[in-house]
Specification:
Layout: H1 9-42, H2 60-87, E1 101-108, E2 111-116, E3 121-124, E4 126-130, E5 135-141, E6 146-149, E7 157-159, E8 165-169, E9 175-181, E10 193-199, H3 201-212, H4 219-226, E11 230-231, E12 235-237, H5 244-250, E13 299-302, E14 308-310
Parallel strand pairs: 1-5, 4-10, 11-13
Antiparallel strand pairs: 1-2, 2-3, 3-12, 5-8, 6-7, 6-9, 9-10, 13-14
GO molecular function: copper ion binding; cytochrome-c oxidase activity; oxidoreductase activity
InterPro entries: CcO_II, CcO_II-like_C, Cupredoxin, CuRO_UO_II, Cyt_c_oxidase_su2_TM_dom, Cyt_c_oxidase_su2_TM_sf
Keywords: Cell membrane, Electron transport, Membrane, Oxidoreductase, Respiratory chain, Signal, Transmembrane, Transmembrane helix, Transport
């Protein structure tokens, strides 16, 4: 089970928190089942040792036992969970000797786009990071609300259009871990998963070099990715406009630009496609597409097999 077979400090702390909470609750639940069986056995019909006391209606020590112990457990559980959950705040950076790898995540129907600001590369449905460095994720969506979760690495967090949420994770060592969207968002929900790959520093550098040799993410390709579709294979891009994450967020905000900062909330237009951002790559538009039918028809596979139809698979992908 991914929640028990952990592969990172955050997931391990979450698992321990869950087990301790279950243990405290078992202090109440287990005696109830045991005493229920004993009462049925002792006071069954025809048993000679069960005393019949029709006038009895109160016992101070029994009331204290029934109410006192659960109350103490609830208080202890509340204090423990309060401290534990605040210690595991997803917004708090993880202690580490190396600075975290910054990754911006954009949820699309039905795929995940990962942007690496420092390396100026991008990938779809594949998150690669050094195993000896934590990762600092900033998340939003260019579609419905989604839930980002890598069970073996740590906490789940929601991502919403027009908002930014943060998540800090780390891995204990090299490995490939399943990540997925756990918030239902349409017919392709069961296929919206990705590989989170913790690799050595040399392998990560090789991944970056390989990505930089690829074509940058173009305006036309992003508009295709933003449409409801699934990918058969992950994709890697050698660049993207550095301000793209913020532009996707601001696309859903209804704020009016201020006179001193007229472009604060402005989005790129088709006239901006030929411009160049700080990364040296062409900037591109994040215009809204026409409404797309989200019925129960087949899903379009984009990428190398663009245009081919596949029938929906309603079964959950195995962990």
């Amino acid at each position: 089970m991914p929640l028990i077979d952990t592969a990172g400090p955050v997931a391990e702390a979450n698992r321990d928190l869950m087990f301790i909470a279950l243990g405290l609750m078992a202090v109440v639940v287990i005696p109830v089942f045991i005493l229920t069986a004993l009462v049925l056995l002792r006071y069954r019909a025809g048993h000679e040792h069960g005393k019949y006391r029709p006038e009895w209606n109160f016992s101070g020590w029994l009331e204290a036992l029934i109410w006192g112990i659960p109350a103490l457990i609830i208080v202890a559980l509340g204090v423990f969970l309060w401290n534990g959950t605040h210690r595991l705040d997803p917004y708090s950076p993880l202690p580490a000797s190396s600075p975290p790898l910054e990754v911006q995540v954009i949820g699309l129907d039905w795929k995940w786009l990962f942007l690496y600001p420092e390396q100026q590369i991008a990938s779809v449905d594949r998150l690669v990071f050094p195993a000896d460095r934590p990762i600092a994720l900033s998340l939003t969506t260019d579609a419905n609300m989604m839930s980002f979760f890598i069970p073996r690495l740590g906490s789940q967090i929601y991502a919403m259009a027009g908002m930014e949420t943060k998540l800090h994770l780390a891995a204990d060592g090299n490995g490939t871990f399943l990540g997925r969207n756990t918030q239902f968002n349409g017919i392709g929900f069961s296929r919206q998963h990705f590989d989170a790959m913790a690799v050595g520093e040399d392998d990560f550098a090789a991944f970056v070099d390989k990505a930089k040799a690829r074509e940058p993410l173009s305006s036309a390709r992003y508009r295709q990715l933003a449409l409801p579709s699934v990918l058969e294979e992950p994709e890697i891009y050698g660049g993207y406009p550095g301000d793209h994450f913020r532009q996707v967020m601001m696309k859903y905000k209804n704020e009016v630009p201020t006179p001193d900062r007229p472009d604060e909330n402005a989005l790129s237009t088709e006239d901006d496609i030929g411009s160049v951002d700080g990364s040296g790559h062409p900037a591109f538009s994040v215009e809204e597409e026409a409404p797309v039918d989200r019925g129960d028809g087949p899903i379009t596979v984009s990428g190398p097999q663009k245009g081919r139809k596949i029938e929906p698979d309603v079964e959950e992908a195995s962990e």
